[in-house]
Amino acid sequence: MANRIVQPLPPAEEIVQKYPITPEHHVPERRHMIEEILAGRDKRLMVIAGLCSAYPFDTVREYADRLARLQEDIEERILLVLRTYIQKPRTTVGWPGPLNQPDPLAPPDIIRGIHECRRMMCDTALKLPIADEMLFTHNGPYFDDALSYLALGARSAEDMEHRYVASGLDVPVGVKNPTSGDIEIGVNGVLAVQAPHTFALHRNQVETTGNPYAHLILRGGRDGSNYGPRSIAKADKLLKAAKVINPAIIVDASHDNSMNGEGKDPLLQEDVLIAVMHGMIREREEYNNVRGFMVESNIKAGKQPITLGMDPHVSITDACLGWEDTRRILLDAAGKL
Q: Nearest-CA neighbor of 247 among 160, 174, 164?
């Protein structure tokens, strides 16, 4: 079967000019703040929080307003980064996210998705540093200049193209361990992103210098969670043995770190934060390089199917914490630091 061209996409330069990132977005300064935290020079924690998928766009903007107000209360101890994840990796099939299908009840429309996602990112990046996941490397020119943080997901972190492209970006990149939960493979990904590479990209031979702020994200795996003391110690040992620059660890409180035996339980994200912070507060050596957390959160808790009459404040992908629990947890974390 042959592919069918549905419609040509606009040049990235056209989209960037239409929805520009300006000095008021403070992207270089925010990237620098994250780099300082990852390097341990800034002693604050970083928490990447927000919707599982950045939809609906007005809800993302409302959540950004709330997170920005919370940031004012805890900015001396925690740096908040807003999740604006515009694509959804799927194990098999499902809604691919607002970039490909900006209306989950309508046919895919990537041109509309590009415009609406770029506009949403420009709006929210005025309030907070924003983060995305690199699902397809060729989409980067539309959005990368707006980002202060980027992640390679569990299904992408072993892919050479993702690693090579990430090695040439100016944005700090988190590399997740794969869905198996193998921490060593995650560390290998960090090493690859920190290294320079020469490869073909967009019909050009390109060279990268390596990304010194690539770091490990622990997100659990098929065999269970990997945020406990043994996993933290193993990750720390592997990073140091590999002589990783800035051997930072971010703990993803969601995904396979929040499974309850029957599926994902978003309320367990609080347990992850409490457990990891306990080791940090006790100043256990293996926790010295833990720099923060990822949290999946929405205005309302839980998840819902994609149907007519959906609640715009409830996730349509992974189940999320509600706002009140999120606010309480982050205030409590700041108070313990």
A: 174
